[in-house]
Each structure stands twice: as structure tokens, then as C-alpha cells.
Design brief:
The protein is built from five helices and twelve strands. Strands 1, 3, 4, 5, 6, 7 and 8 form a seven-stranded antiparallel sheet that branches. A three-stranded antiparallel sheet has the order 2-11-10, with helices on one face. The chain is α+β, with helices and mostly antiparallel strands.
Length: about 230
């Protein structure tokens, strides 16, 4: 029983650590009218942690072993180049990004459609956005990094889609949002009647996000404020 409890505690700690380090990727789509209408009135705006570009590494070397080695060597060289420049990193995944590191760079490769002698892998190249970052300069650095990538064998690199953003652990803004919701509810009661009772539903929801600018995200918690028993 004690061993089982220790194992469960270890799994819980690992799960919490993973949740705290989650990095979400946000596509280039900005908030449209329909998205805006679905948002609650209370939101906050934050600069993203990283500017992100999705790239596809293609390779059509005939030998499967050689093709795999060429793709992985290209990833290793990208990691080496990133380590020499401040703020760069590599990752893969879909909604949540998984870091690519020198110790863990052999990520799953994909067959190229109907061609048995071609493979590809989609990865993200990201660059940190500081609080005083000049976004145009950061974009130029990111595009230059991709353009100057060292490619092994028959590997090609092709940028995919537009620039995206990523944010590490959106839940770290939870109580900043909740505090703003509370302040708004207090102002709402004062504007209607100080005798009203205030109820707020939905604060247990997770933090949500939408892209609002080239480097900014709008964060919110879906919630509902109710005023009852107003005099």
C-alpha cells in the first residue's frame, strides 16, 4: 500500500509539473466578429512568449535508413544553430508543443503520401519575445534562421502557414483574470443597485485564449455574472 501511495504521489507531481510547463500554440487567425461576440466582457491582453513558425522537413533519399539519418541530422544541426543564438528553440506537436532537445530529437517521421521512398516531419521553430521586443526585427531573425538552415543530403525545408504564437502555462494568469472579473462584478452591482446580490458562475473553467494582434493574445475565463434581489 505504501509503495502504491508513493507511486501515485509521484505520478501526481509529474502531472502537475507537466501542466505548469504546458506551452500552447496559437495559429495566425485573429479574433473575428463571431469569436469576439462569444467572449465574456472581462478579458486581459498579454504578449505571447514566443513567435513561432511551422516548417516541414522533406526528404526523398531512396534508402529508408539514409533518409531517416538525413532528417535527424538536419534536426540536430538546427538544434546546434539554435543553441548559438539567444531565444531560439525547436518543438513539435499540435495544440501543445513538445520541446525538441539534443537528448530527444528523434521524433516520429511521416511517410510522404503514396511515395514509399519519401518522408517528412513538421516542427516548430520559435524565438522568444521579450517585453521590449521589436516584432519586425524578431520576424526577420526567425525568417533568417530558417533561410540559413543547414540541410543534410536531400532534405528540404519548407515554411508552413503564417507566423503563429505560443504561450507557456496560460493558467498562470488565472487569478489575474479572476481578480478583474471580481472588480467588474463589484462595479456592475454599484451601477445597478448596491443592494443586489452578485453571483459568478464558471470560474472553475480553464483559461482560454484568442490571438488579438501580431504578438498579443487575449485571455479570458468563460463565466457569467448574475445580479439578483436588487432593490
Amino acid at each position: 500500500m505504501r509503495a502504491l501511495l508513493i507511486a501515485m504521489m509521484g505520478m501526481l507531481c509529474a502531472s502537475l509539473a507537466h501542466a505548469q510547463m504546458q506551452e500552447v500554440v496559437v495559429t495566425a487567425n485573429r479574433v473575428n466578429g463571431e469569436d469576439y461576440s462569444r467572449m465574456p466582457a472581462v478579458t486581459i491582453t498579454k504578449q505571447a512568449d514566443f513567435l513561432v513558425r511551422s516548417v516541414r522537413l522533406n526528404n526523398d533519399t531512396r534508402s529508408d535508413a539514409a533518409r531517416t539519418e538525413e532528417l535527424y541530422q538536419t534536426i540536430k544541426d538546427l538544434l546546434g544553430a539554435a543553441a548559438k543564438q539567444s531565444g531560439f528553440g525547436l518543438a513539435y506537436g499540435e495544440d501543445f508543443l513538445i520541446p525538441i532537445t539534443a537528448a530527444d530529437y528523434k521524433i516520429p517521421l511521416n511517410p510522404e503520401g503514396k511515395r514509399p521512398d519519401a518522408s517528412y516531419v513538421d516542427i516548430y521553430i520559435k524565438i522568444a519575445l521579450g517585453s521590449q521586443a521589436n516584432v519586425s526585427e524578431v520576424i526577420t531573425k526567425l525568417n533568417g534562421f530558417i533561410k540559413n538552415a543547414k540541410l543534410t543530403g536531400r532534405t528540404e525545408i519548407k515554411p508552413q502557414d503564417d507566423l503563429a504564437l505560443s504561450l507557456v502555462n496560460p493558467e498562470r494568469f488565472r487569478y489575474e483574470i479572476i481578480q478583474k472579473i471580481s472588480q467588474d462584478a463589484t462595479q456592475l452591482r454599484a451601477a445597478v443597485s448596491k443592494g443586489c446580490k452578485v453571483g459568478i458562475e464558471g470560474l472553475e473553467n480553464r483559461v482560454m485564449w484568442q490571438r488579438s494582434d501580431i504578438s498579443e493574445l487575449t485571455l479570458y475565463i468563460p463565466h457569467r455574472v448574475q445580479l439578483t434581489d436588487c432593490e
